[in-house]
Design goal:
two-stranded antiparallel ribbon, alpha/beta, globular
Length: about 200
Amino acid sequence: MNEQKKNLSRRGFLAASAAVVGTGAVAQTANSTEVERDISGAVQRNVSSFRSLDWQPYFNNLNGGAVLVDLQSRALHFWSADQSIYKLYPTSVPLTEDLTRKGRTEVVRKVEGPSWRPTPSMRERNPEWPEFIGPGPDNPLGTHALYLSWQYYRIHGTHDTRKIGRRSSNGCIGLYNEHIAELFAMTGVGTQVLLI
């Protein structure tokens, strides 16, 4: 009988443990949210296909390397010119379609420790924003920025890691600071970029 109680206790412990683990996973999934515009409007986290891709459907060649930004899956793909390096990074993407630009561009400038000025349209939407922020922890461009041939558009880092994987930018593509530092080192002026 004592052995039966011991087994029952073990079974009870295992069942309770499984219930707690299962409940934690459900609670974590149910509470996962993303900011789509307003923090009060919670929606389920992005579950798009975050998978590796081949470069050939998107680029004719890899001269100078290639960056593909998939706005739907919120992922940035990088291929080196010699095909020896392939990287896949999670990104933040623009809040709305009207802030989004798609198509072909290229890296025209690289800046470590970028400064930031809101665009005229940002200032119009957010007049309370400062006119200038120098390099540092308050800078929305993070530690590195790749300037594209489209005015005001960049691939840059962010100090606010909550933005990655979400619709949270005013038009740029954001990466974790450690990822933009890595991408910054692998790209050059002239690296081709495609946003789809």
